[in-house]
Amino acid sequence: MRRYNTYSICLIFALSISLIIIGTQYVDNTLYFKSSEHWKSIKVIIKVEDGKDTYVQEIPIKLFHSVSEAATNKEDIYTITNTNQSHGSALINNASILTHKETHLATDIENILDKARSDIRQQLSNFNLSCSGAHSLEDLVMESGGHPIRTLVISSWRSGSTFLGDLVNSIPSNYYHYEPLLMYGTKQLRRPTDATEALSIVRRMFKCNFEGLEEYFEFESKDLSLFSHSTRLWEYCKNEKSNDLCFNGDFISRICKLFPFQSMKLVRLRLSLVDEILNDNELNVRVILLMRDPRGLMQSRRHRRFCELSSDCWEPSLVCADMISDYVAARNIMQRYPGRLLVVRFEDLALKPDITTQKILDFMRVDGRKAFDEFLESHTNMEVAGVHSTFKVTRNIPFKWKYTLDYNYVNDLQIACKEAMRLWGYKMVYNETHMMSNEFNPVEDYTISK
């Protein structure tokens, strides 16, 4: 009998505990659901009030579930009111599902954008915008519905493109898209089928649309030294604790739209493929093609590790075939898009900087003489170590090949590049004495026949 009483007491105790557990699960817990299957069938909808705008938005249930579990964290703020589960859904009015960190980030971004707007106005307070066909700054700012002046520099490795790109970027309030195709490595994109994605990146960046460019940001994040050229972005995205904003597509899209001038440099895309960019009337891009004597080009590329790994970089026949292709493409573009292409030889830029840079400014339609003069003064009168440095005595660079290359190598190079050299106005050398003579000027006039 005692045994049965003991069993009865244990049974009653167990049932009591079960009832307590069940009760606590359903009482005062309006966001409890019995199983994961119930969670899958439930829609969570929030009413969002954003200034004057009010709209309804559905939240993925997994996100909401994790939010409800994390609501006990004192560092997070969640306001949940007016819940209603009668039809298997929860209506949350005036919900704020933002952490302190996210709130501060949003505030920081707005402050940065305000500062950028103020800086740009100050930098251009005495700038002659009429050269760019604008009556006011807003005419050139995308945020205000304007159309910025866009300039695309096309060249190849070791052609002086870094120097030219930084020169153009010296213009006040210019946003520089520095080498957005770096992730393609040491490769030349020559055929349309190879360049579909690359051209899409170029168009999107010129339109300040950086959303969905995760692969680009992942590559950029591996080398912060790249921002030494994209100076305007780096000025506003760098931070002592984190540089996350430098890879935030939404932030970069917004700050890009504040600048009246945009420039981009590409050394992996041949000129023949730029037709698609020129044909986009919304962009209205102007293109500068930078060429260089193949002998100086190859001298600069020799012993560069990045170049040794790719025939596109070290094989003279491929390099000079690209030069011929660029000549043909330049002729076609000048016919189809008059006034949209300027050809500059590196030798002319180095030996006649004042005349050549004025041609560039006139072509770009920008009042940047003062900025260009200051850049040339600081970048052509001193020598600083480093393969990619633009602080060099550029007058000594163009013909360095005459005194450093072996004549037999030069002769073989000239055989492979004879037609390209003829088209672009580079004279042949016939022996070592001729090559090293101070009287020999390798550059002559050229024309792009129509």
TrEMBL record:
Keywords assigned: Membrane, Transmembrane, Transmembrane helix
Q: Which positions, given as ranges, span the membrane?
A: 7-27
The residues covered by the Sulfotransferase domain are: 150-424
Spell out the molecular function terms from Gene Ontology: N-acetylglucosamine 6-O-sulfotransferase activity
**Cleavable signal peptide:** none
What InterPro entries has UniProt attached to this entry?
Gal/GlcNAc/GalNAc_ST, P-loop_NTPase, Sulfotransferase_dom
Example of a GO biological process term: N-acetylglucosamine metabolic process
SUPFAM superfamilies with a match to the protein in the record: P-loop containing nucleoside triphosphate hydrolases (SSF52540)
Write down what this protein is called.
Sulfotransferase domain-containing protein
| The organism of origin for this protein | Spodoptera exigua (Beet armyworm)
